[in-house]
Amino acid sequence: MNQHVMPKLNRRAFVIGTAAAGAGLSLGLDLPFGGPTVVRAADGSPEVNAWVVIRPDDTVVIRIARSEMGQGTLTGLAQLVAEELECDWSKVVTEYPTPGQSVARKRAWGDFSTGGSRGIRSSQDYVRKGGATARMMLVQAAANEWKVPASECTASNSVITHTPSGKTTTYGKVVEAAAKLEPPADVKLKDPKDWKIAGKGLKRLDTVDKTTGAMIYGADVKLPGMLNAAIKDCPVFGGKLKSYDEAKITGMKGVKNVVKVGDSAVAVVADTWWHAKTALEALPIEWDEGENAKVSSESIAKWLAEGLDNAQPAYIGNQNGDAKAAIASAAKKVEAVYNYPYQNHVTMEPLNATALYTADKCEVWCGTQNGEAAFAATLEASGLPAEKCEVHKLMLGGGFGRRGMTDYVRQAVLIAKQMPGTPVKLLWSREEDMAHGKYHPVTQCKLTGAFDADNNLTALHVRLSGQSILFSVRPAALENGKDPAAFQGLNATGEAAIGYSVPNLLVEHSMRNPHVPPGFWRGVNVNHNAIYLECFMDELANAVGQDPLEFRRKLMSKHPKHLAVLNAVADKIGWGKPAPQGIHRGIAQVMGYGSYVAGAAEISVTDGSKIKVHRIVASTDPGYVVNPAQVERQIAGSFVYGLSALFYGGCTVKDGKIEQTNFDTYDSMRIAAMPKVECVMVPSGGFWGGVGEPTIGVAAPAVLNAYYAATGKRIRSVPLKDQNITFA
Amino acid sequence: MANLTINGKTINVDVEDDTPLLWAIRENVGLTGTKYGCGIAQCGACTVHVDGVAMRSCGVTVSEAAGKQITTIEGLASNGALHKVQQAWVANDVPQCGYCQSGMIMAVAALLKEKPKPTDQDIDEAITNICRCGTFQQVREAIHAAASA
Q1: A430 with B39: Cβ contact below 8 A
Q2: What is the pLDDT of residues A664-711, one digit of tens each?
Q3: Span of the secretion signal (chain B) (predicted)?
Q4: Integer Cα distance of B85 and B91 in angstroms
Q5: How far apart are CA A395 and CA A114, in angstroms?
Q6: Mutation site, B136, B139, B143, interface A, largest A CB count within 10 A
Q7: Which CATH architecture has domain B2-73?
Q8: Pairing of strands A657-658, A227-233
Q9: A107 in a structural domain
Q10: Measured between CB atoms, does A637 come within 8 Å of chain B?
Q11: pLDDT tens-digit profile of A164-220?
């Protein structure tokens, strides 16, 4: 944990509203790139600027504001800083600044939020400038010492050389002087084609501790005098805690306290978590379940199905021409209805946070995808101002969007507040995690395609019905009631644009928000939208007897980047050439998070119900690739996550509660089912797209389309387990 | 109360007999490399060796484990050198979030003891740990690398 300990900075405290810290938007960026006052790290080493600290032994400490949850951002961002800094990569270590320090320094490190595949693409510009600025100051300091123009000096591998004289010095020797210099006004960044550290598949910086058990995750925090809490929230979302019979468990071993948490949850605090959980299970609890106890998956499905009716109101997300009229007068019409269920993130590390509350301070230790949002939750739950709160970020045992939410942080603080002076670690059981997710939203979709007499696609109508994430999570982002994110992958333009040109197009969303709380789940709305569109593209191709790839290509001439990745996977998988005996292929493409991606699968099917995935090929154009080895791992991992959801996922609702309770009812892929993912990276430059999420969108449709090729049976409903289809 | 022999050291832990070994290791002994993922012996994040056999420690009680040789991830390295599986993990840059990797590594170390040169099919049958990040490709490569080290 030591590398994450930061100094108490002697700066004036900035009191900010919790909403501002949570939204992370309203303060604007004011990134300090150095200045005459030297700021020092805990060990006394000077900051060259907020991003770079250099120790006298030449160790380079790079500050990373975004969270590492396995996606490799920590390493990738360090590569970008180091590239411009021209430092010795073998001497690089990283540390997290805390949200409290960031607030106190006018958000010196910018946005902490780590989601939407933004970790690198949204901070690459200013972290590279941070590295470049530091390099220029270090070079200037050496030049000053030698009394030569900085233009005669170069820096490489943490060594500064005065070219004419051959004199050299190191960053560690000039850092004290450099830290006192004014930062340069003009900073020129390298052309990515000249990268030496970025763009390379360097090893991650956080691997060794993850192989020895030494890495400290939130669940591993130990503080002197710490107690442990287990929690149960009303299993019906929106319900309340009515009563509990504390007397029944007060004598149980290790139990120290039973506390109400907000108006819907109860927690048992004990010496160990095992004692807390055991006592909580023995605690008689009465819930006021409320009206939502009547809701079931069936009632939700019925309500959503009503939204597929064109007579119902809907928000328009994308339209050109007159799709409804073109469909009405079509020579041939194809229609299909699809659906996609709730999904739980199921991070391997169950949610947890440790809080210590005293009258004048509240500190939290947790894994979070958004340090600033966790900080805001700490302020709000503790009732203390920003200068009296702090959040210490720890390694995340998975995030996938779930740890961008702060419900568990709020709960930990509310518990600790009732036991001032005692640190309390709140750990959710897996059962609590399954019962209180922030679920991938539930949707249905009716798609209608129209052809003219020559089998040209003249119209496409995509009618979505279902839940909006933003309505629940970020209502301020709605546009006159419309959730713009609902159309991810189907938009006319932007970072999630449709890859087809259809003369008459209508994409609309009938918003229906059941009581089950939705959240951002790796890939978010791309998951279902890509299944709907890409499986239906196959249906359309089939309806006119055309090859699915050729059918798509004809509609993609105005979308060259979408087409390029599609062609890349087609080439790699050998589309158009005969597949081996018994093997069938499926293909899909989508754009999301600023990146163009495509996937293809080769599968065999036994008895119509046992699927063996033999090959997966995936392609991405994210503009630039900062670490190809990590991009490859993200792509492969996204297929594991996406196919787990396709085959085994699906959270169902009964009596207002989620029915699945653990991995025995919500399974996840094992190694046996997963083939190697063959990646084709085609970064075309000029833009920065994300990596962690986009390819998950093509995982399910590529396999579903291959299943159709193998069986002639079209699957329009997820998960496959409900249709007795599983891995071979 | 139970006497547990963990990583070669015998430790007296003051817990009820039916306490899962996982929680005695994490909370009473204080070794946190062994992880809680499900508590129902499904995910494998809590895998340790009990008398050399890979077991899900959430499904073993301390009374069952008492008197047996228990090895956790912290005890896998010997004489300051990482176990060949750990070395292969580092060389192949296997972990993503890393939370499941202690259990994965323990399962693989036990497999290699039984089958020093496992085939892909051996791996498929023996390694049933869940990894939500999806590191399986690197896991497989690293197993083969460790087997030939």
Answers
A1: yes
A2: 999 999 999 999 999 999 999 999 999 999 999 999 999 999 999 999
A3: none
A4: 10
A5: 13
A6: B136
A7: Roll (3.10)
A8: unpaired
A9: yes
A10: yes
A11: 999 999 999 999 999 999 999 999 999 999 999 999 999 999 999 999 999 999 999
